């Protein structure tokens, strides 16, 4: 272990702003990408399921009218 | 008359009837060259330093502005579809359109450049190199830009998108074009830059019409 | 030969690829997390302080992997573009759309971390270093691809146009890099090297490679995940998608 204390770790020899600014934004963007991808997938599934349900309903209604 | 020449003749006569195409590029080029000294100050040493870059960027932007019109007019009136469907080789027809575009938007810039170069106090040798770099560079810009124009044919927001697509690809031409004039000013001789520019032009002349033809077929199917 | 190509072409069908991607991405994600954690451990807690750059050098553990990935992803896009234009597979276009946002993100990260590294090292947020400048142009190439594919409504045309653009861009990347290098050295600009000139300490190199691998697996995982969403959207009218979406137990 090269750090003598936690505060030394965060300070990064005076370069804390730059190092954590880099790692922080990296984590933010990668995490954000994952979250957005997940959200988009869920949204797509839900909206397609909704469409399928309306289609089914329309088909059932059409069948009812035919009989 | 071969299809190639027929297309050129048609484009030139259409443009000369409306004169917009030539005027827009020329006007923009003149305005850029005139505004920069006003914005930066009349210090001749500074102007001589930035002159080649400013003129080249002006020519590049002027050329880029007129790209949208390369295929749009023919696309609107259905001529483009006829060209794609015709048995004449599409790359050669596209090459003809690119050549016309250069004759109308690029060549006037080359002819004007000595006059505008005087505003930046460039000497005769510098102006010679500038014209040489523009004569090689402006057709290169037309060839590269044509691919972008073909890809964005009929697309929403085509103008801005076209600029975004084409700017990264313009960078080498700009670097070597303006660099040629700067190299000459630094006493290093412009032959290396101009040779590279010529090589890029030859390669683009071979590949660009083919890429454009592919892009046009994609756009029209 | 035919046996192999049968396998390959089988997965060119969206339905088959959907299943394959679904099985693969969790593994890629798990591996990425594992390697990333290991790489960060090595980089932040084991690798020694650099003699010249102090602690600031640790930024390379994200900067270099991000740069590499931004270039690898673009190459991958060019590869899929060639496949798509040659074999006219729908999946190639979808793969590119899945890859592009991640590539653009890595290009941006490369620029961002590069700036944050440059400020303490060279005193400037931005230098017209050949590599940084080329990275900026690469970022614009990504944006151009995303802009073009987003503006064209017809998916087939969008895929093909995007593929052609990616290909033209990829061919130009060496030209652009060469021209920017030339421009940079001619003007005696910042002749800085982003990586250490002398050989890196073992632990530093090891940590950097681990991070690079982690980023690569991350990109694979997220691209596979994204392409599943795209496949669902594109193939929504097919029976298999309808069956896939139907909640369990429903008719």
**Gap between N and C termini of chain C:** 42 Å
Nearest-integer average pLDDT of chain B = 91
Mean pLDDT of chain C: 86
Rounded to the nearest angstrom, the distance between the terminal CA atoms of chain B is: 29 Å
Order of helices and strands of chain C: HHHHHHHH
Question: Strand count, sense and closure of the main sheet of chain C?
Answer: none
Q: How many domains, in number, for the residues of chain B? A: 1
Poorly predicted parts of chain C: 189-195
Name of the top-level CATH class of chain C: Mainly Alpha
Low-confidence stretches of chain B: none
Structural description of this entry:
The complex is a heterotrimer of chains A (67), B (221) and C (251). Chain A is mainly α and 67 residues long. Chain A is built from two helices and no strands. Chain B has one domain (3-220). Chain B is built from nine helices and no strands. In chain B, helix 1 crosses helix 6 (90-119) and helix 2 (20-40) packs antiparallel against helix 3. By secondary structure, chain C is mostly helical. Chain C is built from eight helices and no strands. Chain C has helices at residues 2-10, 14-46, 60-87, 90-122, 130-151, 155-186, 202-234, 239-245. The N and C termini of chain C lie far apart (42 Å). Chain B binds chain C through residues 147, 151-152, 155-158, 161, 164-165, 167-169, 171-172, 175-176, 179, 182-183, 200, 211, 214-215, 218-219, 221, and chain C through 85, 137-138, 140-141, 143-144, 147-148, 151-152, 157, 160-161, 164-165, 168-169, 172, 175-176, 178-180, 182-183, 186.
Mind sketching the topology for me?
The complex is a heterotrimer of chains A (67), B (221) and C (251).
Chain A: H1 6-11, H2 16-66
Chain B: H1 3-18, H2 20-40, H3 44-65, H4 69-77, H5 79-85, H6 90-119, H7 124-151, H8 158-185, H9 191-220
Helix pairs in contact in B: 1-6, 2-3, 2-6, 3-6, 3-7, 3-8, 6-7, 6-9, 7-8, 7-9, 8-9
Chain C: H1 2-10, H2 14-46, H3 60-87, H4 90-122, H5 130-151, H6 155-186, H7 202-234, H8 239-245
Helix pairs in contact in C: 2-7, 3-4, 3-5, 3-6, 3-7, 4-5, 4-6, 4-7, 5-6
